[in-house]
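To whoever picks this up:

The parser on our side crashed when reading a file containing two proteins. I've narrowed it down to the boundary between the first structure block and the second sequence. Both blocks are reproduced below exactly, byte for byte. First block:
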Amino acid sequence: MPNPSPPSTESLTPSPEAVSQYSSRLRQTLGVVRPSAQFLSFWIAIALPFAYLPLLANGLNDPTIALTFVTLLVVNVFALYAGHGYNQH
């Protein structure tokens, strides 16, 4: 059985036009998605601290509750970062 020749790398290299078109579409998509993501992140960062109250009221003695609290805290920090530019003109 003959050994097949390795595939040519020329066929795997995208053309400059294809890269430019992909880059343009990516910028357009990010331009549409970014404001929505900032809006959602901003309001999550505002509302999430209200979820801390029942956890803190019951105490953090249970490892599951403590892990939930830390997870919510990490999500809140990420939401603050992602939503910090919302509605700034």
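<<boundary where parser fails>>
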Amino acid sequence: MRTEVITVRTGSRPTVVDITREAEAFVTGRGDGLLHVFVPHATAGVAIIETGAGSDDDLLTAIGELLPADDRWRHRHGSAGHGRDHVLPAWIAPYATLPVISGRIALGTWQSICLVDPNGDNPSRQVRLSFLEG
């Protein structure tokens, strides 16, 4: 198994960051296997979605409606509504596993690998890429 950790700047607002290029670079030339993408944070997730056509903003809107950033949460450290960020991984898992064929991630035409981070308290995140050879 080969592993690499990348740092992703997420800023101070909820965001969806496309990390497909970094993942593709990691698997290039590695043959067949599985790419495992893991975010070792309690308030972020990994989603396989279309980006650039509004879906990333739609996802953030849906998170805001499903998990409002208000004072309803028992988990109360950090910025207002931060407790909802700790619930996010129950809906958007902190990992994804994807097939790699001949050194290329087998994504669909419009699919991208995205880091989903609603937590503006942490301006950067770590993402662990692991390749399991088949």
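After patching the parser it read the second block fine. The chain has one domain: 2-133. The CA atoms of residues 77 and 112 lie 32 Å apart.
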